Amino acid sequence: MTDDRSYAWAYQDTSDQYQAAPINGEGNYELHVRFDDIGAESTIRVATPSYEIEDPLGEVTDGVVTAL
Asked: N or C: which end of the chain has fewer CB within 10 A?
């Protein structure tokens, strides 16, 4: 069986932590990031098949992330 779903990934490169969430048929996803020992100023990279952003964690939590 193959998995045809696409995924959104959150990376914290400095600490080598990452999490993924499936992207639904409408192109939406919800990441629940549980990284150890990072703060609001820690840089998080969010990558999907369509775009990638890199911002401080405090700027991408509790909101909508969109490609520019």
From this structure: N
Q: What is the dihedral of CA 11, 12, 16, 17, to 10 degrees?
A: -70
CA geometry: angle 56, 53, 42, nearest 5 deg: 20
- DSSP label at residue 59: H
Residue 24 has pLDDT above 80, yes or no: yes
Cα(8)–Cα(10) distance, integer angstroms: 7
* Number of helical H runs and strand E runs in the chain: 1, 4
pTM flag (> 0.90): no
Helix (H, G, I), strand (E, B) or coil at 66: coil
Angstrom distance (rounded) from CA 26 to CA 29: 9
